[in-house]
Amino acid sequence: MNYVQASDDYLMYLEVEKNYSLNTLTSYAFDLKLYGEFLTANNRSLDLDDLTSSRVRCFVQDQVINHGIKPRTLQRHISCLKSFSEYCLKENYMKSDFTAGIQAPKADKKLPKYMTLQEHHKLFTYLEHDPRPQELGRN
After folding, report:
1. Residue 28: which of 51, 44, 3, 10 has the closest Cα?
2. What is the three-state SS of 55-119?
3. Is the pTM of this model over 0.90?
4. How far apart are alpha carbons 61 and 59 in whole angstroms?
5. CA-to-CA distance for 6 and 94, rounded, in angstroms?
6. DSSP state letters, 25-57
7. Separation of alpha carbons 59 and 104, rounded Å
């Protein structure tokens, strides 16, 4: 089966049967299109049985080196492709998992942002001069 047709089927499945949100559907449609465009740009077959994990690795490498994709976005791309591959296997669109052995990179953990001493001072100065009552309501 052709990659583009299988992608359309998969997105319809996510929308109708899985009831995915519009944001998720839009992101997955973008991810699938991006991978398809990568295959086409590199003169690779769009037949599902011709897809390989080494081609996915090349795609990941291309995204990082040539497009500066951040780890979180890369995680979503890989997650989408893995889920798509599972769907295609379940529907017997292809014979083997083209994402086998592909690991998503670890994403940087965001540290909490704290107020600076100056920001604290500014906040408390404002609260000290605020004419509104500051106590919580009592019931």
Report:
1. 10
2. HHHHHHHHHHHHHCCCHHHHHHHHHHHHHHHHHHHHCCCCCCCCCCCCCCCCCCCCCCCCCCHHH
3. no
4. 5
5. 10
6. HHHHHHHHHHHHHHHHHTT---BGGG--HHHHH
7. 13
- Residue 126 tokens read as 């404002």
Which among 38, 37, 29 has a CA at the least distance from the CA of 10? 29
What are 6-19's pLDDT values in tens digits? 999 999 999 999 99
Nearest to 30 by CA among 104, 84, 93, 68: 84
Q: Residue 24 contacts by C-beta under 8 Å, 6 or more apart in sequence? A: 14
Contacts of 84 (CB under 8 A, 6+ apart): 6, 7, 10, 28, 32
> What confidence tens digit (pLDDT) does each residue in 100-118 have?
999 887 766 777 888 888 9
Task: Give the position of tokens 């973008």.
Answer: 30
Which residues pair with residue 2 across a beta bridge? 47
